[in-house]
From TrEMBL:
Organism: Plakobranchus ocellatus
GO cellular component: cytoplasm; kinociliary basal body; nucleus
Protein name as catalogued: Mckusick-kaufman/Bardet-Biedl syndromes putative chaperonin
Single GO biological process annotation from the record: protein folding
Signal peptide (from-to): none
GO MF entries: ATP binding; unfolded protein binding
Length: 646
């Protein structure tokens, strides 16, 4: 017997909290530690899994990290949306954006407290980021590197800077050099010799990436042409001869002049050829079983006529984005036409760039399929990881296939992601030939320049923001600490908690770059050894850096400086109740090293860029800085955060 009871209405639980509430600050600190712990070359690898089970993601990449997470705090969702929008546009700089934004929110709240409004600090933050951006875009900027595409060392250095920050790949120095050269070679091969005005701009980046697990990364290689998976070809070693129709008809746009060899005509279909009615009518109707079979046969008969027309036009290869009906496959085979289906939408742009074919979107709408066909010169059968592939070749089309290898599936996905980031950065150099000195050097340099500019116009900034000069200096200390100094500390010290093993970080007053000196180097013979700064663009001897009487170099030791004031750092503190102060960099803000030091700094400015230099993406860095500041100001402007718990 069943007993029915009336459902009791469930009351909705509305939770209201301010931005500076303990719960919000705790969640910001936790997410800040999460981002910081996987940043830099010494960052840790995060393993993420859904509480209900499922796929396990191992990564240090910001795009894969955020895509696999589900956040409940509205403030963190706002920051994550800003980061994901930035990554969608540039592909790089996501972790820096998130870390700078969250640090600025946290330190501003802790510095101002509940008695002071955040509006003055937000207005000053906008002025600070404007000054930094104007300096980086000016001709006087000393941390911008001219990325001349004729200088291969610049391209190698930038590519190596991207892939060297992925510890999950487990690559050696030799692997870094080899893979960097391979990526740059792909980039150069994908640039067309001359732009084809008739066909317009390319539909893809002309670099198709194929993954091959269970192989060492140094087995990665480059193929000229487009490699498509073709399961219907037999998986046997050696070459497999397959029948495909060739034609003497030529295309002046995609075949070389004077070439008398036959070519293969290609048709590209982007609609389904399985016999459904998706391209005929968009409606839902009821039919009997016999009527359904009749309707399907009518559609297949229409596609069969289309295939006969392709044979008449001497088409040798049919590429379908979706599914081809088995009946049509048999018909195509009898007509000596090779068919490859289930390509997917991501492959279609590469087929268009290689063959010049235009998509056939409907069997009814098309009147002249021959005018939409493209051409290739050859098709070869290849085996990769016990799978059959078809390599389509077209010498005049600047399209290549990059086969990336890795030992595990997770490291392969990480490898693909970092290669795509480096390629996007290389292609951006075609529009803007600029890069930044990486490894924290441009952040430290901008921090010094900003400090000088703010102190020179202190009264003007105070009057514009409607606050005192002391508040301007306090906001400047918060900004430099959150946006620059803490990020440099993460890059150079990673997630280490053994303070004695850290190398000393020195700041040079002439170039305003940071230098990492060996902690155990005390031999007299090694003091004259030439050292590179963190980005690798300047050199100096260890003697010049180690001089304590001169003022040319000062030590950047925020951990020591903060402990003297009872301050705590996110790398060592997991207790959200302790108050962090942003004035930990007083050494840098109050006693800026001048150029009056007596130490002879053997600096070699404007050094030629070597392959070991560390370079950052210019546009991604500047836009990431902008978005970090404006997202932080948006969060600080919120009065209450209202969320429905149910």
């Amino acid at each position: 017997m069943f007993h029915l009871e009336k459902n009791k209405p469930v009351s909705s639980q509305i939770k209201v909290a301010s931005v500076d509430s303990p719960d919000n600050l705790s969640s910001i600190s936790a997410f800040l530690d999460l981002v910081g712990s996987c940043s830099g070359p010494d960052g840790g690898i995060h393993m993420i899994r859904n509480p209900c089970g499922g796929h396990v993601t191992m990564t240090t990449d910001s795009s894969r990290l955020l895509a696999s997470m589900c956040l409940s705090r509205q403030i963190l969702k706002l920051v994550m949306n800003s980061v994901q929008g930035h990554l969608k546009e540039f592909g790089d700089g996501g972790k820096y954006l998130a870390f700078a934004c969250l640090s600025l929110i946290k330190l501003t709240i802790q510095e101002t407290g509940k008695s002071t409004h955040h509006r003055a600090y937000s207005a000053l933050n906008e002025q600070f980021v404007k000054l930094v951006s104007e300096y980086l875009n000016s001709e006087e900027c000393a941390v911008c590197v001219n990325a001349d595409l004729t200088d291969m060392h610049v391209l190698f250095a930038y590519t190596r800077s991207v892939i060297s920050t992925r510890p999950l790949l487990h690559l050696s120095e030799r692997d870094f050099e080899q893979i960097s050269q391979l990526i740059v070679k792909c980039f150069v091969e994908s640039i067309p010799e001359q732009e084809n005005n008739d066909s317009g701009p390319g539909h893809s980046n002309r670099i198709f990436i194929v993954g091959s697990p269970l192989e060492h990364p140094r087995s990665s290689r480059l193929l000229k042409g487009l490699l498509l998976e073709c399961p219907e070809l037999p998986i046997v070693k050696g070459e497999h001869a397959f029948s495909i129709m060739k034609t003497n008809q030529r295309s002046k746009d995609f075949l070389s002049e004077g070439d008398s060899s036959k070519c293969i005509k290609v048709a590209l279909v982007t609609c389904s050829m399985s016999g459904d009615l998706e391209d005929i009518v968009s409606a839902t109707f009821e039919v009997s079983e016999g009527q359904a079979a009749t309707a399907e046969n009518l559609v297949l008969d229409k596609w069969a006529e289309f295939c006969i027309r392709l044979a008449h036009y001497q088409v040798g290869l049919l590429l379908c984005q979706k599914v081809i009906h088995p009946r049509l496959k048999i018909l195509l085979k009898t007509q000596n036409i090779m068919a490859v289906d289930r390509l997917g939408s991501n492959v279609v742009p590469y087929v268009q760039d290689l063959t010049g074919a235009q998509p056939i979107v409907s069997v009814i709408a098309v009147t002249n399929p021959e005018s939409l066909c493209g051409y290739i010169t050859a098709a070869e059968h290849m085996l990769l990881n016990d799978k059959s592939y078809l390599l389509l070749k077209q010498p005049k089309a600047s399209l290549v296939t990059l086969i990336l290898c890795s030992k595990t599936e997770e490291s392969l996905e990480e490898f693909k992601c970092c290669v795509k980031v480096s390629l996007r950065g290389l292609f951006s150099l075609l529009r803007e030939e600029k890069l930044l000195a990486g490894a924290g050097c441009w952040q430290i340099h901008c921090s010094y320049v900003l400090n000088e500019q703010v102190r020179s116009s202190l009264s003007t900034l105070a009057d514009g923001a409607g606050c005192s000069e002391a508040q301007v200096l306090s906001a400047l200390s918060v900004f430099r600490s959150a946006v620059f100094h803490r990020w440099v500390q993460l890059l150079q010290k990673g997630d280490s908690i053994i303070e004695d093993s850290w190398d000393k970080l020195m700041i040079d007053s002439k170039t305003k770059h940071c230098w990492k000196t060996p902690s155990g180097c005390k031999k007299a013979g090694s003091m004259e050894e030439q050292l590179f700064c963190c980005c690798g663009l300047n050199t100096s001897s260890l003697t010049s850096i180690s001089l304590t009487n001169g003022a040319s170099f000062v030590m950047f030791n925020p951990s020591r400086d903060s402990s003297a004031r009872g301050q705590v750092f996110p790398n060592h503190c997991r207790n959200g109740d302790k108050r962090e102060s942003s004035a930990f960099d007083a050494l840098l803000s109050d006693s800026e090293p001048g150029a009056t030091g007596t130490a002879e700094s053997q600096l070699c400015l404007n050094q030629p860029v070597t392959i070991t230099a560390t370079l950052d993406h210019f546009s991604a860095a500047i836009q990431g800085l902008y978005k970090a500041v404006f997202t932080a100001n948006l969060v600080l402007s919120l009065g209450q955060v209202i969320s429905d718990v149910d």
